[in-house]
Write a structure and sequence with these properties.
Chains A, B: Keywords: Actin-binding, Coiled coil, Cytoplasm, Phosphoprotein. Chain A contains five helices and no strands. Chain A is mostly helical.
Chain lengths: 276, 276
Amino acid sequence: MESVEKECGALGGLFQAIVNDMKSSYPVWEDFSAKATKLHSQLRTTILAAVAFLDAFQKVADMATNSRGATRDIGSALTRMCMRHRSIETKLRHFTNVLVEGLVTPLQDRIEEWKKTANQLDKDHAKEYKRSRQEIKRKSLDTVKLQKKARKELLGRGNLRPQLDSAMQDVSDLYLLMEETEKQAVRRALLEERGRYCTFINLLQPVVNVEIAMLGEITHLQAIVDDLTVLTEDPHKLPPASEQVIRDLKGSDYSWSYQTPPSSPSSTNSRKSSMC
Amino acid sequence: MESVEKECGALGGLFQAIVNDMKSSYPVWEDFSAKATKLHSQLRTTILAAVAFLDAFQKVADMATNSRGATRDIGSALTRMCMRHRSIETKLRHFTNVLVEGLVTPLQDRIEEWKKTANQLDKDHAKEYKRSRQEIKRKSLDTVKLQKKARKELLGRGNLRPQLDSAMQDVSDLYLLMEETEKQAVRRALLEERGRYCTFINLLQPVVNVEIAMLGEITHLQAIVDDLTVLTEDPHKLPPASEQVIRDLKGSDYSWSYQTPPSSPSSTNSRKSSMC
């Protein structure tokens, strides 16, 4: 009997420890939420900087595409690289939004719910525990009274024995009931605690999935880097297309003409040039 | 002869157009460099926010690992997710450094070199073009003089003919030489222009390679997400390990015990709870 009583106390203690852990966890969750919010706002300004960077990148690509020489292929590969990065940027923007809308905001709502639930669990358990203890105490007192009475009446008819046995059985049943109730309370607390992580992971997954979607862009980047490597492998040799620019000029109606500039601006440096 | 002259002018005009394109490109390159620098500084602050976020994430993971219930597996999966993100963060840090050290800073140096080279190309070409034109002019004048002389001496011995033919051949040769020289100048300008993109891409590649390596880290995230999905698929059911926590308590020396709290704090709400 004493062992069941101790076990009920231990179960109650375990329940309390779990609830206390949950209660002391809020600063950790709130810190996570605050740091995620800060990351979100940093990512937003980084995305703005990335957009401006990609605009500047596209201008370099356009310049290569539209130059007189044969850098059209290089320009188009750079444009593809720029477009891929715009696609990464779009996914990063999506990630940034999901981080707050899908994770931080719902998590903050949950934290409030968790506080209420843990308090309620604690309150309900305390009440139930007390009620059980009191009932057991009352029944135990009844038993003690019956035992005294039985001892006095031992010399009498002795018909208190079944009554005493039944009372003692009642106390024992109440203990077993309390043990089961305490186990259930511990299970509820464990479920609540574990459920928090399940909820958290449930909210986290879509965020990580958007992040994983960015991975898909790699293959494309690799292909473009490979193209650019081939296109620029010999910077000291003009590709056939550049020679074609010169040949095309011969057949054309000479839309170009050259006016020799006045020599004044370069006169100071003229001693340096000796190309004859 | 007139056609070769026109072609030389056209080649000179093409050369000038290429050099002018190069000269007008600096704002585009400088804008690229400025926007990359801004992106770099934004990324640096984002990395700080990411580090703080990952520290907070790790605390959530630790909490799951150390909780009384059976969330140790969840905690260890969250820790792995956190570690992967730290690895992504390290690569992002590397990317951020390479962006400036490997691309922006060397590019800025190159822009200064490019300015000098384009100016020198322009100056050398103008000088060479003028020199060729003057030489042709002088030779042409000689030819004209010889032609007049030859016309006057037509009635004489007529031995100026070979001299005149040779002078005219000289002019023609000079034109062909000038044409070749102009073609070479155009080729030099095209090589210089194309070389800029080759240099740019050469500087860009290591940056994109680090980026690709960073995205490569994301592959590992999928496995962790899959683990977390399995671990949390039924939040309303305690896993066997949680039941074990309760069973283990039975065999233990009952290090837990429960003190029923004073009823005062919950007394106001007591009418609501009716659990008996």
